[in-house]
Amino acid sequence: MIQKDLKNFFLTITLTALIIGAVYGGVFYLSKTGEIRIVEGGEVPYTIRQVETMMRYHGAIVARFDGKRWCFLKDGRWIAIENGNALNYALKEQPKASQSM
Q1: Is the Cα torsion angle 74, 80, 82, 85 positive or negative in sign?
Q2: In a domain, 2, yes or no
Q3: Are 63 and 10 in contact (CB under 8 A)?
Q4: Which domain of life is it from (predicted)?
Q5: How many structural domains compose the chain?
Q6: Could you tell me what percent of the chain has a pLDDT over 90?
Q7: Which band of pLDDT confidence, cut at 50, 70 and 90, is reported for residue 38?
Q8: Exposed, middle or buried: residue 82 (CB in 10 Å: 0-12, 13-18, 19+)?
Q9: Which domain does 20 fall in, by range?
Q10: Residue 63 covered by a domain
């Protein structure tokens, strides 16, 4: 009888810890994924076409605006999108009347 109670106690503790861990992990993940949120208030420095051109320059598939600057994802790190010669390339490629973000 005591073994069964002890087994149920540890099972309850384990399940509670797993549920709390899953909730915490989900909240942590959602707070770190800025790709799906719309940021208000920050001045967006580039147009849509310029960002797309700089992404092509770097071969990037994913980019995000973090409130201050545009970054692209490379090897698990977010790097400023205007690095290298990407900004000059984008400015030469794009017409002056492109739509701002």
Answers
A1: negative
A2: yes
A3: no
A4: Bacteria
A5: 2
A6: 5
A7: very low
A8: buried
A9: 1-35
A10: yes
Q: For 42, which DSSP code? A: S
Contact yes or no for 90/53 (Cβ under 8 A): yes
Query: Which residues share a beta bridge with 70?
Result: 65
Residue 42 lies in a domain: no
Distance CA 86, CA 5 (A): 65
Categorise residue 45: left if φ over 0, alpha if ψ from -120 to 50, beta otherwise: alpha
Alpha helices in 1-101 (DSSP H): 2-32, 48-58, 86-93
Q: Are strands 63-65 and 77-80 parallel, antiparallel or unpaired?
A: unpaired
Of 26-30, 78-82, 92-96, least confident by mean pLDDT is: 26-30
